[in-house]
């Protein structure tokens, strides 16, 4: 394993070096939180694909393929569909808003009264997303170094916190590009063909496995519908995703770069399911389906290649973890702390704001590592996070973008009713049940429409300012001064 260890160590040192280099570029709030809003198509596509394809998409996607066959691709496939929908229909408008958080968008649309409560819901989601990604280090480092769970979480989490704190979004963007390349080579170009060949090819896989393993809908229509509600809609409204949209240098970059990233996700989904199906042929009696990825890597890949593919898994986890961490810190600082203490946001970009945001990333990073050590059930924690996000925020966000008659009172009612309904239904039906998200969304939609129609329409001056912002005609105080050269 010496060569494999060397590959991993070089990769981890490279991540820290990227963080140090990114620190030299992050000199303002805009540079630190959204990479100066100047990423070109190549970097934007790579970093967007990296953030959405994490440990759940890689290790979990292979596990679903092991359990259900080709239909196990649906979870990651719906993530790709959500990214495509966001990019094609909404990303241009989102990029033109020139804000930092989803809650700031709600304030602009509804007149400044939706920020804190939506910020708390978004903060809980991003925190748990970062926690679940951080826990995945334990699995990977256990395969690599045979270390205990706590040490693995501290080691992986500390590296992510270090480079994220140093350079903010610039460091995360640079590391994400490396991670995107490593994932592409490790999973798509190496592990996929090797696993299929080791399993005897597709003809042998068909001969060895039941026919339902090759049924595109074998996982079940209700499960697919639930994935769409949670993951496709979750991609439309998550702070971690929107913060990447804010990095695009133009609405065209956001639209087409995101479309490329979404298409890549669809291919990644199919690859994971095929690898899992091949693993079922090679190891038909694994006790845990999520062990399929590590087992194939450990037993079937040659020296050196094994290290690169494990680095790919590490890259998948780190990209999601770092993206969720900076999103969590941005929401905590800008949407919760600044509002609760009554701070007045400066009108221009202030260089000294970098220090405050850097401190929040460090603070949230320590909280994420501590929570990851204490938490055991990752699937339930992530389900709670996504249920709260979609049940509480989907309706007011999409309603604000699509329905002029929606009001601040309607938005607040939708957040409160949807969030409380999801929590109550999870307590009644169980956290992993489908009913909480189904009925929670319906309750949120009903509250939004009824309360909006029962209250006075949003002030026309607020709507006029909103239309100006969506059209890209932002006030001078909100515009970001861009250098002549843009990142490619």
TrEMBL record:
Keyword Cell wall biogenesis/degradation: no
One MF annotation (Gene Ontology) recorded for this entry: transmembrane transporter activity
Keyword list, A-Z: Membrane, Transmembrane, Transmembrane helix, Transport
Spans through the membrane: 6-23, 44-66, 72-95, 116-140, 152-173, 180-197, 217-238, 259-283, 303-332, 359-378, 384-403, 410-431, 437-455
Protein name: Sodium:solute symporter
Bilayer topology annotation: Multi-pass membrane protein
Pfam families linked: SSF
Cross-referenced PROSITE patterns: NA_SOLUT_SYMP_3
Family, per entry: Belongs to the sodium:solute symporter (SSF) (TC 2.A.21) family.
Origin: domain of life: Bacteria
GO cellular component, as recorded: plasma membrane
Gene3D superfamilies found in the cross-reference section: Sodium/glucose cotransporter
Main subcellular location: membrane
Protein localization: Membrane
């Amino acid at each position: 394993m010496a060569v494999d260890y060397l590959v991993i160590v070089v990769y981890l040192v490279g991540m820290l070096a990227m963080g140090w280099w990114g620190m030299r570029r992050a000199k303002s709030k805009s540079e630190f939180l959204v990479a100066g809003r100047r990423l070109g198509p190549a970097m934007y596509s790579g970093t967007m694909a990296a953030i959405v394809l994490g440990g759940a998409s890689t290790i979990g996607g292979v596990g679903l393929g092991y359990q259900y066959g080709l239909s196990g691709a649906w979870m990651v496939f719906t993530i790709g569909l959500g990214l495509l929908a966001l990019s094609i229909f909404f990303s241009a408008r989102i990029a033109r808003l020139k804000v930092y958080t989803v809650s700031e968008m709600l304030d602009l649309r509804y007149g400044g009264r939706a920020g804190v409560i939506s910020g708390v819901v978004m903060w809980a989601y991003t925190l748990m997303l970062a926690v679940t990604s951080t826990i995945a280090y334990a699995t990977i480092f256990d395969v690599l170094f045979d270390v205990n769970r706590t040490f693995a979480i501290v080691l992986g989490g500390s590296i992510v916190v270090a480079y994220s704190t140093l350079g903010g979004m610039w460091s995360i963007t640079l590391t994400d590009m490396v991670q995107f390349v490593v994932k592409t080579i490790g999973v798509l170009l190496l592990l996929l063909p090797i696993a299929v060949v080791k399993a005897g090819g597709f003809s042998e896989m068909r001969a060895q496995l039941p026919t339902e393993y090759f049924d595109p809908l074998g996982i079940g229509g209700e499960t697919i519908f639930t994935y769409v509600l949670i993951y496709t809609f979750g991609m439309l409204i998550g702070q971690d995703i929107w913060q990447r949209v804010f990095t695009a240098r133009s609405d065209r970059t956001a639209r087409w770069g995101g479309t490329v990233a979404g298409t890549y996700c669809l291919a990644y989904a199919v690859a994971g399911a095929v690898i899992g199906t091949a693993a079922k042929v090679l190891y038909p009696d694994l006790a845990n389906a999520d062990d399929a990825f590590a087992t194939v890597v450990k037993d079937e890949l040659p020296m050196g290649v094994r290290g690169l593919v494990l680095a790919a898994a590490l890259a998948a986890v780190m990209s999601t973890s770092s993206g969720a961490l900076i999103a969590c810190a941005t929401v905590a600082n800008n949407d919760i702390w600044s509002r609760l203490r009554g701070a007045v946001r400066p009108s221009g970009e202030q260089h000294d704001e970098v220090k405050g945001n850097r401190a929040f990333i460090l603070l949230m990073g320590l909280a994420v590592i501590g929570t990851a050590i204490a938490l055991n059930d990752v699937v339930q924690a992530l389900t709670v996070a996504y249920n709260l996000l979609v049940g509480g925020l989907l309706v007011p966000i999409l309603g604000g973008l699509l329905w002029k008659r929606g009001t601040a009172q309607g938005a607040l009612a939708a957040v409160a009713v949807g969030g409380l309904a999801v929590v109550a239904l999870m307590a009644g039906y169980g956290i992993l049940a489908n009913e909480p998200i189904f009925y929670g969304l319906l309750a949120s939609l009903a509250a939004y429409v009824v309360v909006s129609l029962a209250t006075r329409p949003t002030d026309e001056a607020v709507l006029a300012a909103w239309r100006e912002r969506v059209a890209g005609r932002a006030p001078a105080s909100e515009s970001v001064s861009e250098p002549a050269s843009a990142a490619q």
